[in-house]
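Journal club side-thread
Mid-discussion, someone asked how the predicted structure for our own chain would compare to the paper's figures. Pasting it here so we can look after the session.
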Amino acid sequence: MSRHWHHVAHGRGRPLVLLHGIGMSHEAWSPVLEPLARERRVIAVDLAGFGQSAALPQGVAPTQENLLEGLRQTLTALGVNEPVDLVGNSLGGQLALTAAREGLARTVVGLSPAGLWRGQRSPAHTRLILHAAHAALGRLPRLGEAAARVRLGRTLLFALPMTSQGWRLDPDEAVKVVRTFRGAAAFDATLAASTRFTGGERISVPLTVAFGTRDWLLTRSCQNREGLPAHTRWLQPRGWGHVPMWDDPAAVARLILESTA
């Protein structure tokens, strides 16, 4: 159905696969790659239609099931044929949960995973925020990049959809984030295909879920444990935003390594 996805790989050892959120790419994991790669073979992918990966073929919606098939093909192309440790943020977190449900995962860490809302569709406020951010950056590309280069500008720019600590980002890295978000070919289709995660009670592998106290995109109404297995380790790290790799990379790396050991 789809070609395998673009990826970057670092380190050696048992594979550890990183899955990013909507509008982002493998570069979202840059703050934690070095500490993770000291102990593991880290594979960070670009999901279909994001970063350098082509979108799914015309007529194939980016549902979780279709994205899972793309992930399977990518892992097979990389010679990873056994259940693998998966770490996902937001959209990637839901994909990691889906992979665990279908037997593809050895362990899962979900950082602000999507899909844990009660309704069938994602809440209106999340769609509104994401649509508005994507549209604004598309219509005012120069203004978005200029804001990303200034400490206060990137703090305000990234506050709702990504992180409360945007000032921590290097200006050049922040501009890359803006360009990736703006240029995501599958953004609208993927958001439209976003639905509630189901079947989590079938997950038998170790599962850690973390929603930071400063996640202002997937708020409390999107953080429901119902439907996940009883053994789920549920964390609420203080000060973490929706993309916690940027907020506290050292602590995020520790959590990942401990939870996938």
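Post-session note: The chain has ten helices and seven strands.
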